[in-house]
Amino acid sequence: MRHSNSASAIALLASGFFASGASADITAMEVWENIQALGKSYGEQITGTVSQSGDVLTISDATLTHETPDATATGSFGQIILTELPNGTVEITLPTEFPFTMAMTPETGEKIDVPMVVNQSGLKAIVSGTADDSVYDYSADQLGFAIIGMTVEGEEIPVNANFAMMAVSGNYEVSNGEMRALKSSGKVDKLLLDVGAEFPEENGSFAAKFEIEDMVSKSSGMMPLEANPQGNLAEDLAGGMAVDALLTYGASNYSFDFDAPDGKGTVKGGAENGSFSVTLADASFDYGIKSFGSHLTLTSTQLPIPALAATMESSAFNLKMPVAKTDAPTDIGLVTQINGLALNEDVWALFDPTAILPRDPATLLVDLSGKARWLFEITNPEAMADITTAPGEIESLDINGIELSVAGASLTGDGAFTFDNSGTGEMGGMPKPAGTLNLQLNGGNGLMDKLVEMGLLPQEQVMGFRMMLGLFARPGEGDDALVSEITMTEDGQVLANGQRLR
């Protein structure tokens, strides 16, 4: 797992920067040295021929190179000009476009070369502060890149892509002490991406478009001054590395058009707004996605209906887990949530043309938390290569909530378990659970009756399933409600509503 990113140094070089009020003097040479040092901490080499005339520092033949064992990225800026201004700040001037190449050479798999052109318009760049505390304020009418084709194992593939961020602004702060502190904020009025490809031999093609409005980002982080970009993530976290980032966005839309010998079609969708978040600190990783007002429509010559359409009120996903070996268990968590998922009537009519089933929007929730730890450094390939035992241990798991509601029926539940990792239990060396799971099913019998009426379930199968439910569940409150309390004891017993099953 590698966290280096060539875009980091390009952001410093290709972002526009505004002067920040009154500020201490910083020289052009200090700006150049800081850009090189920050790039180096990400595993990048930024080089060029330096010459100075008065207040103007010129870097000729400037290049950026980032290498990993299976990929190389190279950008040729040409000429970079750093001008010291009377107010003690430094202006950065970059070319309106420059070439950039990605060459992927994995040990297994195909060699891929992707040439592109990075471009900008209306770029303004000012650096203020001091050599140890620098602020890069920026704005640009447009920042982007264009992919001008690609080759796979030497064979040219007719692929093109254009990426652009419109009306960009923000700032980037870098402070050097015992650690390097990073802080940034930014806004993008609109993000655009167009991708297309032709496949003459297969007589096919595809085209895709993405558009996102009102993007706002904030991030902060700490990095060791001598971070080893070729090392594993655990080493950098032990050295104090930390990241906390949030990206929010407004309306988004996308479309895919595909044409193949066996059919063609279109996918269109989008959302009203959403967000992404990531936190990486203290050997823990926390990642979250939220989306609101999503919609999707698929049309295809292969579909038996005019269109498949779905809407969703909201969705969320969150994952929390340790990413390094720890002496004691740390927090883990998983949340998956879908609210108000609805399908169009054309889809329902495929299997329920007489509307026997309720068309209520579906809901899904899985909310888990607990404690666990890794016994090995999972981000270090060498440490993971020869392991013969379980790589980690789970200490506890809390089921904060589960819910599935669809077609007039709902299953809900919660519970909590602890785990014995001694390997001496009856589970063949697996962690041995102890705890209770509480479940409630509402509308289940009614749903089964409707499925029988529709001919989707045989009556004898439903009878057998109801008999099996009788072993695990008892009547709850209401006409069509079942509840179940499943308990697993430390000595290996399994109980359902107090009755021993094992």
UniProtKB/TrEMBL annotation:
InterPro entries with a match to the protein in the record: DUF2125
Signal peptide limits: 1-24
Protein keywords: Signal
Top-level taxon of origin: Bacteria
Protein name, entry field: DUF2125 domain-containing protein
